[in-house]
């Protein structure tokens, strides 16, 4: 999957975000589909996952929209393309929830795949790209802040 993401990202700029949204949608769908199937799969944990992913979708949309705006697209057109990049997320969520209902035995593998895809794209593409323009410290502090927000949501919401 990583090679497909890499090659497609080189051919169609900003397309990597689509693959990130796909894996995030799968993670949320699998989370909701697994509710009450195991002791740790609760509605609260699925809700918290959806909230966390929803919050970090704002910078992802900006990561698509701002370069397009800088390339001369109108504000609304750049915004529209930013929104389109995330439209695969609800579809992947429905697929993930449906897949869990049908294939409960592979649940741990589906969650591991979704998490691994997100970590791979962040480590392989997003972090190195943040370092290119000399914003390494800012990117590092933003990552730390994001982790603190994520952990606060996890502890605060259960």
Main features:
globular; single chain; 158 residues; mainly alpha; 82% helix; disordered N terminus; 0% strand
Describe the overall structure:
The protein has 158 residues and is mainly α. The chain has one domain. It is 82% helix and 0% strand. It contains seven helices and no strands. α3 runs antiparallel to α4 and α3 runs antiparallel to α7.
Residue share in β-strands: under 5%
Q: Which overall shape is indicated by the principal axes computed on the Cα atoms? A: globular
Distance between the termini: 33 Å
pLDDT averaged residue by residue: 80
The total number of structural domains is 1
Would you report the number of β strands?
0
**What is the structural class?**
mainly alpha
- Oligomeric description of these chains: single chain
The helix/strand series, from N terminus to C terminus, equals: HHHHHHH
Q: Estimate percent helicity.
A: over 70%
């Amino acid at each position: 999957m990583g090679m497909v993401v890499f090659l497609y990202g080189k051919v169609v700029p900003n397309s990597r975000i689509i693959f990130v949204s796909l894996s995030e949608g799968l993670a949320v769908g699998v989370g909701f589909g697994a509710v009450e199937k195991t002791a740790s799969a609760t509605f609260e944990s699925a809700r918290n996952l959806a909230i966390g992913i929803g919050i970090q979708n704002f910078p992802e949309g900006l990561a698509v929209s701002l370069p397009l705006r800088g390339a001369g697209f109108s504000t609304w057109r750049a915004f529209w393309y930013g929104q389109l990049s995330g439209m695969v997320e609800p579809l992947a969520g429905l697929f993930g929830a449906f897949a869990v209902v049908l294939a409960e035995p592979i649940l741990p593998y589906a969650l591991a795949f979704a998490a691994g895809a997100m970590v791979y794209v962040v480590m392989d593409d997003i972090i190195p790209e943040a370092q290119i323009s000399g914003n390494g410290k800012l990117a590092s502090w933003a990552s730390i802040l994001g982790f603190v927000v994520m952990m606060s949501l996890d502890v605060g919401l259960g």
